[in-house]
Amino acid sequence: MYMLLKTALNEAHRKLGARMVDFGGWDMPVVYTNQIEEHHAVRQKAGIFDVSHMGELMVTGPDALAYLQKLVSRDVAKLNPGQVGLCVLCNETGGIIDDLTVYKFSDQKFMPVINAGTTPGDYAWFMEHVGNFDVKVENISDNITKLDLQGPNAEKILQKLTSDDLKEIKRYYFKEITVDGVFMIVSRSGYTGEDGFELYLDVKYSEQIWNKLLEVGNPDGLLPCGLGSRDTLRTECGMMLYGHDIDTEHTPIEAVYSWAVSLDKDFIGRDTLVKQKEQGLARKMVGFEMIDRGIARQHYPIYYQDREVGEVTSGVPSPTLNKNIGLGYVEFAIREPGTEIEIKVRDNFVKAKIVKLPFYKKY
Asked: How much is the pTM?
Protein backbone atom coordinates (compact mmCIF):
# COMPACT_ATOMS: atom_id res chain seq x y z
CA MET A 1 0.00 0.00 0.00
CA TYR A 2 1.43 3.39 -0.98
CA MET A 3 1.45 6.42 1.30
CA LEU A 4 -0.82 9.25 0.23
CA LEU A 5 0.80 12.64 -0.23
CA LYS A 6 -0.50 15.39 2.04
CA THR A 7 -0.70 19.16 1.69
CA ALA A 8 0.48 21.38 4.54
CA LEU A 9 -3.19 21.93 5.47
CA ASN A 10 -4.10 18.25 5.91
CA GLU A 11 -4.60 18.59 9.68
CA ALA A 12 -6.57 21.82 9.24
CA HIS A 13 -9.00 20.02 6.90
CA ARG A 14 -9.47 17.18 9.38
CA LYS A 15 -10.16 19.64 12.22
CA LEU A 16 -12.92 21.16 10.07
CA GLY A 17 -14.45 17.69 9.65
CA ALA A 18 -13.60 17.27 5.97
CA ARG A 19 -14.17 13.92 4.30
CA MET A 20 -10.81 13.01 2.81
CA VAL A 21 -10.29 10.95 -0.36
CA ASP A 22 -7.42 9.71 -2.50
CA PHE A 23 -7.20 12.15 -5.41
CA GLY A 24 -4.34 11.32 -7.77
CA GLY A 25 -2.26 9.98 -4.88
CA TRP A 26 -3.06 12.93 -2.59
CA ASP A 27 -5.14 12.86 0.60
CA MET A 28 -7.57 15.67 -0.26
CA PRO A 29 -10.84 17.09 1.15
CA VAL A 30 -13.78 16.16 -1.09
CA VAL A 31 -16.42 17.84 1.10
CA TYR A 32 -16.56 19.60 4.48
CA THR A 33 -20.27 19.80 5.31
CA ASN A 34 -22.47 19.64 2.23
CA GLN A 35 -21.28 19.65 -1.38
CA ILE A 36 -24.31 21.55 -2.71
CA GLU A 37 -23.96 24.22 0.00
CA GLU A 38 -20.28 24.61 -0.87
CA HIS A 39 -21.16 24.90 -4.57
CA HIS A 40 -23.78 27.60 -3.92
CA ALA A 41 -21.40 29.46 -1.59
CA VAL A 42 -18.98 29.95 -4.49
CA ARG A 43 -21.72 31.02 -6.91
CA GLN A 44 -23.41 33.39 -4.43
CA LYS A 45 -20.83 34.44 -1.81
CA ALA A 46 -17.36 32.87 -1.56
CA GLY A 47 -15.47 29.61 -1.13
CA ILE A 48 -11.86 28.73 -0.43
CA PHE A 49 -10.10 25.65 -1.81
CA ASP A 50 -6.77 24.10 -0.85
CA VAL A 51 -5.34 23.02 -4.21
CA SER A 52 -1.73 22.70 -3.07
CA HIS A 53 -1.56 19.27 -4.70
CA MET A 54 -1.13 21.08 -8.02
CA GLY A 55 2.40 21.54 -9.34
CA GLU A 56 4.46 24.63 -10.05
CA LEU A 57 7.58 24.86 -12.18
CA MET A 58 9.88 27.86 -12.54
CA VAL A 59 11.46 28.41 -15.95
CA THR A 60 14.20 31.06 -16.04
CA GLY A 61 17.06 32.09 -18.29
CA PRO A 62 17.87 33.95 -21.53
CA ASP A 63 16.09 31.30 -23.66
CA ALA A 64 13.03 30.87 -21.42
CA LEU A 65 10.63 32.32 -24.01
CA ALA A 66 12.01 30.34 -26.98
CA TYR A 67 12.02 27.16 -24.88
CA LEU A 68 8.37 27.53 -23.81
CA GLN A 69 7.36 28.45 -27.36
CA LYS A 70 8.61 25.01 -28.43
CA LEU A 71 6.78 23.19 -25.63
CA VAL A 72 3.34 24.79 -25.41
CA SER A 73 0.61 25.30 -28.00
CA ARG A 74 -0.11 28.94 -27.25
CA ASP A 75 1.99 31.89 -28.40
CA VAL A 76 3.36 32.97 -25.01
CA ALA A 77 5.29 35.81 -26.69
CA LYS A 78 1.90 37.55 -26.95
CA LEU A 79 1.34 37.39 -23.19
CA ASN A 80 2.16 40.62 -21.37
CA PRO A 81 4.40 40.56 -18.30
CA GLY A 82 2.02 39.91 -15.39
CA GLN A 83 -0.44 37.97 -17.56
CA VAL A 84 -1.65 34.39 -17.07
CA GLY A 85 -2.29 32.22 -20.13
CA LEU A 86 -3.96 28.83 -20.40
CA CYS A 87 -1.76 26.58 -22.56
CA VAL A 88 -1.63 22.97 -23.70
CA LEU A 89 1.38 20.67 -23.57
CA CYS A 90 1.24 18.23 -26.51
CA ASN A 91 3.21 15.13 -27.41
CA GLU A 92 4.59 14.52 -30.91
CA THR A 93 1.23 13.22 -32.16
CA GLY A 94 -0.74 16.19 -30.77
CA GLY A 95 -2.10 14.29 -27.76
CA ILE A 96 -2.58 16.34 -24.61
CA ILE A 97 0.09 15.67 -21.99
CA ASP A 98 -1.46 18.34 -19.77
CA ASP A 99 -3.32 21.63 -19.74
CA LEU A 100 -1.55 24.28 -17.72
CA THR A 101 -1.58 27.95 -16.86
CA VAL A 102 1.60 29.89 -17.59
CA TYR A 103 2.42 32.93 -15.44
CA LYS A 104 4.65 35.33 -17.38
CA PHE A 105 6.92 37.54 -15.27
CA SER A 106 9.12 38.48 -18.26
CA ASP A 107 10.58 36.86 -21.39
CA GLN A 108 13.21 35.35 -19.08
CA LYS A 109 10.93 34.11 -16.28
CA PHE A 110 7.75 31.99 -16.36
CA MET A 111 5.84 29.87 -13.86
CA PRO A 112 3.90 26.99 -15.46
CA VAL A 113 1.21 25.64 -13.10
CA ILE A 114 0.43 22.00 -13.83
CA ASN A 115 -2.01 19.32 -12.69
CA ALA A 116 -1.28 17.24 -9.59
CA GLY A 117 -1.32 13.78 -11.15
CA THR A 118 0.77 14.87 -14.12
CA THR A 119 3.44 16.84 -12.21
CA PRO A 120 6.21 14.18 -12.25
CA GLY A 121 5.62 13.39 -15.95
CA ASP A 122 5.36 17.05 -16.92
CA TYR A 123 8.58 17.92 -15.11
CA ALA A 124 10.37 15.02 -16.82
CA TRP A 125 9.01 16.23 -20.21
CA PHE A 126 10.21 19.78 -19.54
CA MET A 127 13.68 18.51 -18.54
CA GLU A 128 13.89 16.16 -21.54
CA HIS A 129 13.44 19.09 -23.93
CA VAL A 130 15.91 21.55 -22.39
CA GLY A 131 18.51 20.51 -25.00
CA ASN A 132 20.66 23.48 -26.00
CA PHE A 133 18.29 26.09 -24.58
CA ASP A 134 19.92 28.34 -21.99
CA VAL A 135 17.26 27.77 -19.32
CA LYS A 136 16.87 26.51 -15.79
CA VAL A 137 13.77 24.45 -14.96
CA GLU A 138 12.93 23.92 -11.28
CA ASN A 139 10.09 21.94 -9.73
CA ILE A 140 9.09 24.26 -6.86
CA SER A 141 5.84 22.43 -6.01
CA ASP A 142 6.94 21.26 -2.54
CA ASN A 143 7.67 24.84 -1.46
CA ILE A 144 4.32 26.30 -2.55
CA THR A 145 0.84 26.29 -1.03
CA LYS A 146 -1.89 27.17 -3.52
CA LEU A 147 -5.22 28.50 -2.27
CA ASP A 148 -8.14 29.43 -4.53
CA LEU A 149 -10.48 32.09 -3.13
CA GLN A 150 -13.50 32.16 -5.43
CA GLY A 151 -16.89 33.86 -5.64
CA PRO A 152 -18.56 37.29 -5.83
CA ASN A 153 -17.27 38.26 -2.35
CA ALA A 154 -13.68 37.08 -2.96
CA GLU A 155 -12.28 40.55 -3.62
CA LYS A 156 -14.00 42.07 -0.60
CA ILE A 157 -12.61 39.32 1.66
CA LEU A 158 -9.03 39.39 0.36
CA GLN A 159 -8.95 43.20 0.39
CA LYS A 160 -9.30 43.11 4.20
CA LEU A 161 -5.82 41.55 4.41
CA THR A 162 -3.85 43.66 1.94
CA SER A 163 -3.10 47.32 1.32
CA ASP A 164 -2.65 46.64 -2.42
CA ASP A 165 -5.68 47.64 -4.48
CA LEU A 166 -7.03 44.33 -5.82
CA LYS A 167 -9.11 46.15 -8.44
CA GLU A 168 -5.80 46.79 -10.22
CA ILE A 169 -5.41 43.05 -10.85
CA LYS A 170 -7.37 42.46 -14.06
CA ARG A 171 -8.85 39.11 -15.04
CA TYR A 172 -6.07 36.64 -15.98
CA TYR A 173 -3.36 38.93 -14.63
CA PHE A 174 -1.28 38.60 -11.47
CA LYS A 175 0.77 40.67 -9.03
CA GLU A 176 3.24 39.93 -6.27
CA ILE A 177 1.68 41.47 -3.16
CA THR A 178 1.63 41.18 0.64
CA VAL A 179 -1.40 39.52 2.27
CA ASP A 180 -1.56 39.47 6.08
CA GLY A 181 2.17 40.23 6.09
CA VAL A 182 3.00 37.36 3.72
CA PHE A 183 4.51 38.03 0.29
CA MET A 184 2.77 35.97 -2.42
CA ILE A 185 1.70 35.74 -6.05
CA VAL A 186 -2.00 36.56 -6.51
CA SER A 187 -3.79 36.14 -9.84
CA ARG A 188 -7.37 37.03 -10.72
CA SER A 189 -8.31 33.63 -12.13
CA GLY A 190 -9.74 30.26 -11.15
CA TYR A 191 -11.52 27.05 -12.08
CA THR A 192 -15.09 27.97 -11.12
CA GLY A 193 -16.33 30.58 -13.60
CA GLU A 194 -16.65 33.17 -10.83
CA ASP A 195 -14.55 36.17 -9.96
CA GLY A 196 -11.77 35.19 -7.60
CA PHE A 197 -8.09 34.78 -6.92
CA GLU A 198 -5.43 32.08 -6.96
CA LEU A 199 -2.83 32.55 -4.22
CA TYR A 200 0.70 31.09 -4.30
CA LEU A 201 2.60 31.37 -1.03
CA ASP A 202 5.48 29.85 0.89
CA VAL A 203 4.33 26.57 2.42
CA LYS A 204 5.34 27.68 5.93
CA TYR A 205 2.56 30.30 5.99
CA SER A 206 -0.18 27.86 4.93
CA GLU A 207 -2.15 27.65 8.18
CA GLN A 208 -1.77 31.37 8.95
CA ILE A 209 -3.29 32.45 5.62
CA TRP A 210 -5.93 29.67 5.48
CA ASN A 211 -7.18 30.44 9.00
CA LYS A 212 -7.04 34.21 8.53
CA LEU A 213 -9.05 34.07 5.31
CA LEU A 214 -11.70 31.86 6.95
CA GLU A 215 -11.84 34.28 9.91
CA VAL A 216 -12.18 37.53 7.94
CA GLY A 217 -14.38 35.87 5.31
CA ASN A 218 -16.90 34.44 7.75
CA PRO A 219 -19.13 37.57 7.85
CA ASP A 220 -19.24 37.49 4.03
CA GLY A 221 -20.35 33.86 3.82
CA LEU A 222 -16.97 32.26 3.06
CA LEU A 223 -16.96 28.46 3.29
CA PRO A 224 -14.11 25.97 2.97
CA CYS A 225 -14.87 23.92 -0.14
CA GLY A 226 -13.81 20.46 -1.23
CA LEU A 227 -12.95 18.90 -4.57
CA GLY A 228 -16.55 17.69 -4.98
CA SER A 229 -17.93 21.21 -5.40
CA ARG A 230 -14.87 22.17 -7.44
CA ASP A 231 -15.86 19.46 -9.92
CA THR A 232 -19.49 20.56 -10.27
CA LEU A 233 -18.43 24.22 -10.56
CA ARG A 234 -15.88 23.56 -13.31
CA THR A 235 -18.23 21.23 -15.20
CA GLU A 236 -20.95 23.90 -15.30
CA CYS A 237 -18.38 26.20 -16.93
CA GLY A 238 -17.31 23.57 -19.47
CA MET A 239 -13.78 23.48 -18.05
CA MET A 240 -11.69 20.39 -18.74
CA LEU A 241 -10.41 17.93 -16.11
CA TYR A 242 -7.22 16.11 -17.07
CA GLY A 243 -7.63 12.33 -17.05
CA HIS A 244 -11.36 12.69 -17.74
CA ASP A 245 -12.03 15.16 -20.55
CA ILE A 246 -8.52 15.42 -21.93
CA ASP A 247 -5.58 13.03 -22.21
CA THR A 248 -2.94 11.88 -24.68
CA GLU A 249 -5.65 10.19 -26.79
CA HIS A 250 -7.24 13.56 -27.61
CA THR A 251 -5.89 16.75 -29.16
CA PRO A 252 -6.61 20.34 -28.07
CA ILE A 253 -8.60 20.92 -31.28
CA GLU A 254 -10.85 17.93 -30.55
CA ALA A 255 -11.33 19.29 -27.03
CA VAL A 256 -12.35 22.91 -26.40
CA TYR A 257 -8.85 24.34 -26.68
CA SER A 258 -8.63 25.52 -30.30
CA TRP A 259 -8.33 29.07 -28.97
CA ALA A 260 -5.20 28.07 -27.01
CA VAL A 261 -3.43 26.76 -30.13
CA SER A 262 -1.24 29.05 -32.26
CA LEU A 263 -0.47 27.20 -35.49
CA ASP A 264 1.58 30.12 -36.80
CA LYS A 265 4.50 29.10 -34.57
CA ASP A 266 6.38 25.83 -34.21
CA PHE A 267 5.75 23.59 -31.19
CA ILE A 268 5.76 19.89 -30.40
CA GLY A 269 2.63 18.26 -31.89
CA ARG A 270 1.89 21.11 -34.31
CA ASP A 271 2.07 18.96 -37.48
CA THR A 272 -0.76 16.68 -36.31
CA LEU A 273 -2.93 19.66 -35.41
CA VAL A 274 -2.32 21.29 -38.80
CA LYS A 275 -3.43 18.03 -40.48
CA GLN A 276 -6.56 17.89 -38.31
CA LYS A 277 -7.42 21.46 -39.31
CA GLU A 278 -6.90 20.68 -42.99
CA GLN A 279 -8.56 17.25 -43.14
CA GLY A 280 -11.33 17.89 -40.60
CA LEU A 281 -12.02 16.28 -37.25
CA ALA A 282 -13.46 12.82 -36.66
CA ARG A 283 -14.76 13.73 -33.18
CA LYS A 284 -15.41 16.77 -31.02
CA MET A 285 -15.99 17.56 -27.36
CA VAL A 286 -19.60 18.58 -26.64
CA GLY A 287 -21.75 19.44 -23.68
CA PHE A 288 -25.09 17.75 -23.10
CA GLU A 289 -27.96 17.93 -20.65
CA MET A 290 -30.11 14.99 -19.69
CA ILE A 291 -33.73 14.99 -20.84
CA ASP A 292 -34.68 11.82 -18.95
CA ARG A 293 -33.69 11.11 -15.37
CA GLY A 294 -30.20 9.78 -14.89
CA ILE A 295 -26.61 10.92 -14.39
CA ALA A 296 -24.05 10.25 -17.10
CA ARG A 297 -20.66 9.09 -15.81
CA GLN A 298 -17.21 8.79 -17.36
CA HIS A 299 -16.95 6.07 -20.05
CA TYR A 300 -20.73 5.68 -20.51
CA PRO A 301 -21.37 5.17 -24.26
CA ILE A 302 -23.21 7.85 -26.27
CA TYR A 303 -25.68 6.73 -28.96
CA TYR A 304 -27.31 8.52 -31.88
CA GLN A 305 -30.09 6.79 -33.84
CA ASP A 306 -29.23 3.39 -32.31
CA ARG A 307 -25.53 3.69 -33.16
CA GLU A 308 -22.67 4.23 -30.72
CA VAL A 309 -21.08 7.56 -31.61
CA GLY A 310 -19.02 8.57 -28.61
CA GLU A 311 -18.29 8.43 -24.91
CA VAL A 312 -19.02 10.47 -21.80
CA THR A 313 -15.99 12.03 -20.09
CA SER A 314 -17.66 13.88 -17.18
CA GLY A 315 -21.17 14.02 -15.77
CA VAL A 316 -22.66 15.72 -12.71
CA PRO A 317 -25.92 17.03 -11.29
CA SER A 318 -25.70 20.83 -11.72
CA PRO A 319 -26.76 22.62 -8.51
CA THR A 320 -26.91 25.98 -10.31
CA LEU A 321 -29.03 24.85 -13.26
CA ASN A 322 -30.90 22.09 -11.41
CA LYS A 323 -30.23 19.72 -14.32
CA ASN A 324 -27.98 16.74 -14.93
CA ILE A 325 -25.21 17.76 -17.34
CA GLY A 326 -22.15 16.22 -18.91
CA LEU A 327 -19.24 16.42 -21.32
CA GLY A 328 -18.13 13.90 -23.90
CA TYR A 329 -16.73 13.27 -27.36
CA VAL A 330 -19.05 12.49 -30.27
CA GLU A 331 -18.63 12.02 -34.01
CA PHE A 332 -18.01 15.43 -35.56
CA ALA A 333 -21.15 15.31 -37.75
CA ILE A 334 -23.52 15.23 -34.76
CA ARG A 335 -21.86 17.90 -32.61
CA GLU A 336 -24.52 20.58 -33.21
CA PRO A 337 -26.51 21.94 -30.23
CA GLY A 338 -30.07 20.63 -30.20
CA THR A 339 -29.11 17.16 -31.47
CA GLU A 340 -30.85 14.47 -29.41
CA ILE A 341 -28.63 11.64 -28.21
CA GLU A 342 -28.93 8.74 -25.78
CA ILE A 343 -26.58 7.80 -22.97
CA LYS A 344 -26.35 4.14 -22.02
CA VAL A 345 -26.67 4.23 -18.23
CA ARG A 346 -26.03 0.65 -17.12
CA ASP A 347 -28.64 -1.26 -19.15
CA ASN A 348 -30.91 1.67 -19.96
CA PHE A 349 -30.83 4.19 -22.78
CA VAL A 350 -31.44 7.66 -21.34
CA LYS A 351 -32.34 10.64 -23.54
CA ALA A 352 -30.13 13.73 -23.61
CA LYS A 353 -29.47 16.62 -25.96
CA ILE A 354 -26.32 18.41 -27.04
CA VAL A 355 -26.11 22.01 -25.83
CA LYS A 356 -23.75 24.91 -26.37
CA LEU A 357 -20.82 25.16 -23.96
CA PRO A 358 -20.44 26.48 -21.37
CA PHE A 359 -23.58 25.50 -19.47
CA TYR A 360 -23.06 28.48 -17.15
CA LYS A 361 -21.27 31.73 -17.96
CA LYS A 362 -20.87 34.89 -15.90
CA TYR A 363 -17.88 36.49 -17.65
From this structure: 0.97
